[in-house]
Amino acid sequence: MIHFVLLIVCAVAIYLSCEWFVNAVEWLGERLNVGKMAVGTILAAFGTALPESVVTLVAVTTGATAEAKNIGVGAAMGGPLALATVAYGVTGAMLLLKRRTERERTAALVAAGSRGPDLPASSAGDTEQALGTAKDMKRLAKDQKWFLPIFIVKVALGLVAFAFKPVLGLLFFAAYAVYFWREIRGGQDEDGEEEELEPLKFQPKAASPATWAVIAQTLVTLVVIFFASQLFVKQLDAIGPMIGLSASVTALLLSPIATELPEIMNAVIWVRQGKTKLALANISGAMMIQATVPSGLGLLFTRWHFDAALLWSGLITMAAIVYLLLTMRGHKLTPARLAVAAGFYVLFALGLIPILS
Question: What's the CA gap between 115 and 29, in Å, rounded?
Answer without folding.
Answer: 35
